[in-house]
Task: inverse folding
């Protein structure tokens, strides 16, 4: 069998990290970057595979810190829409090379380890990308609390009603999110050096309180979602099921709130996800990499850096082209989303 000097070479790429942008050829051996060379210099390298990036952006892969895959229902019947196979396939298609899924312990189950191992078994041979878990403790039994020690040492522990969609927003006003955020931050300050992660942030008042706490040195981390960057409460009022497709919690807010979320995304208050954000043109390539891959979350927050969030295996190439969004393109199972009919101009071409 022929032995190659490199396993993979990427030529003619524009490499973007959280620190800078530069043109390099990249050589990879044994899943590690071993050489950054002048552009075009490795076009004829002795490599098993050579990818011509054709001037596209080469970035670290996204780390998605919050996904729900193949979870049994915590309450009632049903399960998550996507399996590990479909969900991670969708992640890779969208530029994510690491996902943080959930390992839920059912209330009737006394063991945490059993829940973790069952979740890992579902993911192990069905995932297209790297994965990690958030544990959901449904039953803090004596057995579960005792198992936390083993999880820490052996498993790498770090840490039905239906309404008209437009009323979903009215019943969940901004002040509730702002108050809950302030309360969580205030309570966390009672115990020094207690980090907390606030998710699905949509309220300007909440973002201001998060920024103030971060400025004061509290270990507060936060993330938002694409719906708060691209949808508003006006979308909930669309007729029929078009409005229902935009229901989420918290609900989409008004346009000033949306602009405030973009501002906090640019200044580093929190993070979010991929092609829609890149295509908006509201973040520079370096800020985009910082937000979705590197610092302060997600790669550094979850101790995945520098294996993730820097230009080592897991990088992707973004192609500059205008693509319409059609629901039958997606790799995941949730087809009814509020972004259909729009377009993106930057999509992952290679992972």
Result:
């Amino acid at each position: 069998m022929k032995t190659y000097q490199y396993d993979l070479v990427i030529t003619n790429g524009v490499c973007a990290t959280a620190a800078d942008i530069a043109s390099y050829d990249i050589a990879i051996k044994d899943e590690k970057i071993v050489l950054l060379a002048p552009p075009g210099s490795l076009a004829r390298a002795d490599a098993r595979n050579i990818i011509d990036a054709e001037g596209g952006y080469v970035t670290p892969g996204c780390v998605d810190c919050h996904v729900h895959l193949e979870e049994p229902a915590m309450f009632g019947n049903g399960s998550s829409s996507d399996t590990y196979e479909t969900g991670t396939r969708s992640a890779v298609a969208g530029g994510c090379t690491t996902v943080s899924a959930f390992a839920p312990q059912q209330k009737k189950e006394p063991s945490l380890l059993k829940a973790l191992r069952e979740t890992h078994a579902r993911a192990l041979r069905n995932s297209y990308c790297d994965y990690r878990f958030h544990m959901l403790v449904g039953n803090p039994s004596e057995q579960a609390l005792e198992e936390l020690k083993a999880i820490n040492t052996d498993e790498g522990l770090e840490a039905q009603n239906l309404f008209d969609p437009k009323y979903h927003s009215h019943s969940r006003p901004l002040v509730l999110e702002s108050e809950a955020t302030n309360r969580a931050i205030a309570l966390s300050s009672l115990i020094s050096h207690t980090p907390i992660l606030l998710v699905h942030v949509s309220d300007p008042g909440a973002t201001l309180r998060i920024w103030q706490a971060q400025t004061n040195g509290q270990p507060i981390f936060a993330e938002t979602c694409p719906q708060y960057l691209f949808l508003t409460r006006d979308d909930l009022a669309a007729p029929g099921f078009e409005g229902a497709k935009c229901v989420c919690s918290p609900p989409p807010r008004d346009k000033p709130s949306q602009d405030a979320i973009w501002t906090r995304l640019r200044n580093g208050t929190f993070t979010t996800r991929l092609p829609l954000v890149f295509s908006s043109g509201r973040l520079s390539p370096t800020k985009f990499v910082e937000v979705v891959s590197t610092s302060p979350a997600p790669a550094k927050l979850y101790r995945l850096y520098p294996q993730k969030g820097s230009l080592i295996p897991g990088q992707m190439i973004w192609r500059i082209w205008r693509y319409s969004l059609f629901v039958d393109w997606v790799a995941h199972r949730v087809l009814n989303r509020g972004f259909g009919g729009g377009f993106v101009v930057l999509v992952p071409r290679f992972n």
In short: The radius of gyration is 21 Å. DSSP finds twelve helices and twelve strands in the chain. The longest strand covers residues 6-16. Residues 45 and 168 are 57 Å apart (CA to CA).
